[in-house]
Design brief:
Two copies of one chain form a homodimer.
Chain A lengths: L6 H26 L2 H11 L6 H12 L6 H21 L9 E2 L2 E2 L1 H5 L1 H25 L4 H15 L4 H10 L7 H26 L4 H28 L2 H4 L4 H4 L5 H5 L1 H21 L5 H12 L3
Antiparallel strand pairs in A: 1-2
Helix pairs in contact in A: 1-2, 1-3, 1-4, 2-6, 3-4, 3-9, 4-6, 4-9, 6-7, 7-9, 8-9, 9-10, 10-14, 10-15, 14-15
Chain lengths: 301, 301
């Protein structure tokens, strides 16, 4: 990491910008739905998350020449709305049946299963509308706006996150091969992480090679992120993680179960190098992206 | 109804166009997801539905000068993807816990609860992408394309369908007042039905007054549709309906429970008149829209 880049200050400043944007997003969504659905959305979205996807989106936007301002965080918040939906549905009884998420009771434990089902699904079109609105406020061309919202929707649905979550569930109790595991992780974490970078680049009007580099960066750190999650699940307690180490308990295939701790660690580092190589080759000089790539594998939860 | 308009032939020809489009839609979605999710989507989407929303969309598109062709049905199919998602989720155990839908076992009874949850949610972004693709194929301007997809997403989420479904569930066991009931119905059925008309008009590049007329037509027949559903639920058997008359069983507020059969019937007819008045005043001459408005209240299931 560049010695002149203070990652912790950067992360906390960026997270504050994202939290404010999420507050604005939840406020307009609440005004459109019944109070009980709004409360569930508030619980699911305004939690103590890392906000990695929105932070990456803003970093990509800036690295491609986008200017500072609230609207960039508003755009980025749309990614967290999708991430929150996926967590709310993942935690439901018919999926992981999780009690704890980010150190708090899961949404359905507080607001009920029916309301959480509805609230999660409502976040998908809300995220599309949020991204549209923000792209307009950023002064994006109509073409860039379309590009941004399509990228979000593609990563949210068929072929993206949902496909990967499905493979994840199927992985319980039977070891996946390395190829399937790679596919799972590319889809599950990769699709939305890569979308974060691409959305930021598209909103800033980045050139195709630069945009491609940010996509490759996103895919690589998405994989590094998932490998690191597997490592943390294998080595941490629920208290540190703020959630139940469910992947481990359910005997799913993980990078650690498949390759062992040392090799998994090596592979995560390899992906970070690939991510930095991609942006470096495209001439993107962004200390934030470099620091974020390292943070993905060095984080403790 | 115009004597020279053969509604049954019209409906069956239009439904065939919609079915073909839904077949194309399900095929691309299946190619993007795991086989089990694809199978659940196929089950939920390719059922024996009335396809009223897509048929209305195509009728609106034509009434506003849009030309014949496959792509209009592809656009219209996006509405049925959203409708199918809402039925798949509505039928889940934590919601209505329904066994039967359109005379067949519900999706989760065949494909499981977890898969149906995922498959339903995957249909939301898939519908957005479907509408985008079709609007492109129709040669819509970028502005009209944005308009079309935004209309679909707005009707699918916060403030639209999901809000209404929530009120619906809350209505169980405690009688709603007339105002709440009107709000419920305007939202639940009205949002997506009105969107069907508006999407067709927007794709055809309709003038603002004409578009407004089609919106009003959509809201009015949406309400007429829901009142008629209440009447059918109160007077039909499960065999005729192809589903369990669940609203009745669960003692929900309905137009029939609130106003009685005669007054409910009168109110439905009043809405049909309002719908026809709106399009008539705007100079939209469309026998199909007239016939469809009457069909909404005269149908037997």
């Amino acid at each position: 990491m560049s010695e002149d880049f203070d990652l912790q200050t950067f992360l906390s400043e960026e997270a504050a910008g994202v939290e404010a944007a999420l507050g604005r997003a939840v406020a307009w969504i609440e005004a459109e739905v019944e109070p009980e659905i709004g409360a569930a959305i508030r619980h699911g979205v305004l939690s103590d998350g890392k906000r990695l996807r929105p932070i990456l989106c803003v970093a990509s936007y800036r690295a491609c020449g986008g200017e500072e301002g609230e609207a960039a965080y508003d755009l980025a918040a749309s990614l967290e709305l999708i991430h929150a939906y996926s967590l709310m549905h993942d935690d439901l009884p018919c999926m992981d049946d999780a009690e704890l998420r980010r150190g708090r009771p899961t949404t359905h434990r507080v607001h009920g299963e029916d309301v959480t089902l509805r609230a999660g699904a409502a976040l998908i079109p809300a995220a599309a509308l949020q991204a549209w609105q923000a792209a307009g406020a950023l002064g994006c061309t109509r073409e860039a706006t379309t590009d941004v919202v399509r990228t979000l929707m593609s990563a949210s649905g068929a072929g993206g996150m949902v496909g990967g979550q499905w493979i994840d569930l199927e992985g319980e109790g039977n070891a996946l091969g390395a190829e399937e595991l790679g596919d799972l992780h590319r889809r599950k974490t990769g699709a939305l992480l890569a979308a974060s970078l691409v959305m930021g680049a598209a909103a800033a009007g980045a050139s195709p090679p630069r945009r491609q580099a940010l996509y490759e960066y996103g895919r690589a750190i998405g994989l590094a992120f998932q490998i690191t999650d597997d490592i943390l699940d294998a080595t941490s307690s629920a208290e540190t993680l703020g959630k139940n180490p469910s992947d481990n308990e359910l005997d799913k295939s993980t990078y650690v179960s498949l390759y062992g701790l040392d090799e998994a660690t090596r592979r995560a580092a390899e992906q970070v190098d690939a991510a930095l190589g991609a942006v470096g080759e495209a001439g993107v000089d962004a200390p934030a992206l470099e620091a974020l790539a390292r943070y993905v594998v060095e984080r403790k939860h």
